[in-house]
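Limitations
The structure tokens in this dataset are predictions for the assembled complex, not deposited experimental models. Users should treat interface geometry with appropriate caution, especially where small molecules or nucleic acid strands are included. An illustrative entry is reproduced here so readers can see what is and is not provided.
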Amino acid sequence: MTAFTLDQRLAADCHELTVVEDTHILLMNNRLIPWLILVPHTPEIELHRLNADTFAALMTLQHQCARFIESQFSIDKINIGAIGNIVSQLHVHIIGRRKTDPYWPGVVWGNPTREPYTPEQVTQLQTALQDHLQRPL
Amino acid sequence: MTAFTLDQRLAADCHELTVVEDTHILLMNNRLIPWLILVPHTPEIELHRLNADTFAALMTLQHQCARFIESQFSIDKINIGAIGNIVSQLHVHIIGRRKTDPYWPGVVWGNPTREPYTPEQVTQLQTALQDHLQRPL
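Predicted assembly:
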């Protein structure tokens, strides 16, 4: 595995919660929406070109993150997206949506309304996520 | 497997190209954007709650559809999305994006600009997709 550098726009928009399975797990710094981003350490930019093992590990993490969001927040729907039109570094969005959130029923991308987390909220979510990832699926 | 009925909004917006692996493959009726939609025949609405076999089959189809779009159109990026805020029936978008398309670099969802395919274009894509799905991965 070559050295990995997180895209600077992802780094600016998000908190780095943890790294597992050669994958960064980021928290979008917007407490209006529970929103995690997986960034596998790969130069590939398309999901369908990942090798089978890397893709399977990424999907396992995607499911774990969706369950984590469900466990921590009262949500109505999970949204999954791999877009990459602006930030080409491969990343997968896992987003908890509520019918009362400010973007519903639209998608979250392209919407500038944001409220940052407090440092305490980030630490609480980081600890809870790390605990969640230790549990069997 | 219980009887499957395609959501009426998906049916109104799309052409039904084929059914494989208990999954409808739809073509969004908008020739500005190469846009396929997979609709597995399941009452489940969240990807992370599908059983492992159903999820794996869906991801294989997702990859095949992404490759099909790349083979038929000159594109710059594939966008993948499972949203379901408006149509809850589980469906996965596989979209070929061009830097010159009318929505770039934004996402396609929520954008009303559309141009329908001709019947001949739909038939050509349907035949090409069915041929593509017969080939080994």
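Some entries come with short summary sentences. For this one: The mean pLDDT of chain A is 96.
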